[in-house]
Amino acid sequence: MTVREGSLEAPTRHPIDWKNPDFYDEDKLYQELERVYDICHGCRRCVSLCTAFPTLFDLVDESPSMEVDGVKKEDYWKVVDQCYLCDLCFMTKCPYVPPHEWNVDFPHLMLRAKAIKFKKGEVKFRDKLLSSTDAMGKLATIPVVVQTVNALNRNPSARKVMDQMLGIHQERVLPEYAATKFRSSARPRDDFPVRDGSRTPGKVAIYATCYVNYNEPGIGHDLIKILEHNEIPTRLVEKEACCGMPKLELGDLEAVARLAQTNIPQLAKLAREGYAILTAVPSCTLMYKQELPLMFPDDPDVKAVQQAMFDPFEYLVLRRLDGLLKTDFKKPLGKVAYHIPCHLRVQNMGQKTREMLQLVPDTQIHVVERCSGHDGTWGVKSEFFANSMKIGRPVFRAMAEPGPDYVSSDCAIAGRHIMQGMGAGTQAQKAHPLTLIRIAYGL
């Protein structure tokens, strides 16, 4: 439970009423935006979290009345555009979230505004493109095409054109696409005996995610090696599509629903067969743990998937509590600067990755618990790149402070962003926490 000032109760998340016609009523949206903006203006606790709140407070302070009623309604959207739905204000800062009578859910209000904006057709081609992670991955990883795409993403002239034509910032370091996809190359073992624990199912199904499948398959292979070392029968989810988080952040809720129609039946079947479902990307885990259950609160299949979904380190630490995890680590990791991403923090399960890394002998973990500022596609966009680097600056400094051997984040994109912010002078290696555990096992 996250304890907030003024409340000893855990935040309560209400279902997203996205099928109600009133959800898309712009006049009613403006009324709710004005109500919540006024509460936020009177409180201002979240000013340091991101750029959405400073944008709001500047609009208020520069208005004729110096109150929310003095802000032009069309300027309300400037705040919406700065929100990337990290959920930290709701989960860690705001004293007025439900069950408080003021019922403030700032991220889901921003989601409602984004959904209306999308329905009105006020979304750029670039944003639709960047949120189509599965389609882009399939295209970019075609043999020969993959080499061309990666070369263009590294070419300064090509990046300048992408900046001018698409609005993808020329200085943003983009992840490469892999020549061999994770799902086509993974060989998990399912021939070990199933050993269920009181806290954990004894067999695992891996939901690859778009990023692991197309960009960093090594993360998925490391997870398989860790599970195999611990003699846990493992398989891949037979068929999967994007989890829907990029489309959710765009406000395209119909696309989220279509993706759920592909994914949920496959995952629910595995859940009912007694599998723990693991994803190595916190945003994807959060999608199944929180956002889809709030969009489809009465769907028993969605509920079954929610209960079976685990972050990999949540599963491994619970496995240890069940007395079923090997801790025969052979290699120390030295100094590790470890960043906890927002979409992991808001899952409210504690610092399970840190707990696991601290089991490795002769290893020092320096934890940074602050938003890196990248957030999926937001930090890629030309108009938000500078803000993403500004938000991340305290993280970059904190990660560099111990002179680490490794820089690590459960969010691989945040890890790349942090490495870019730390600059070329850093001697640290970037490695996902799963990679670090695989190294520590000597695998």
Please specify the SSE layout and strand pairing:
Blueprint: H1 26-43, H2 52-61, H3 76-82, H4 88-93, H5 106-119, H6 125-130, H7 133-140, H8 145-154, H9 156-166, H10 182-185, E1 203-206, H11 210-214, H12 217-229, E2 234-236, H13 245-250, H14 253-272, E3 275-278, H15 282-295, H16 300-308, E4 309-310, H17 312-321, E5 334-339, H18 342-345, H19 352-357, E6 363-368, H20 385-400, E7 406-409, H21 412-422, E8 429-430, H22 433-441
Summarize the amount of helix as a percent range. Answer: 40-55%
Shape: globular
Number of domains: 3
Radius of gyration: 22 Å
Query: In terms of per-residue confidence, which ranges show pLDDT below 50 for 5 or more consecutive residues?
Result: 1-6
Instruction: Give the tally of β-strands.
Output: 8
Strand content: 5-15%
Q: What strand line-up does the widest sheet have? A: 2-1-3-4
SSE order in H/E notation?
HHHHHHHHHHEHHEHHEHHEHEHHEHEHEH
Kindly report the average pLDDT value.
Answer: 93
Helix- and strand-based class? alpha/beta
Cα distance spanning the termini: 36 Å
Organism: Thiobacter aerophilum
Protein name: Heterodisulfide reductase-related iron-sulfur binding cluster
Pfam families: CCG
InterPro entries: Cys_rich_dom
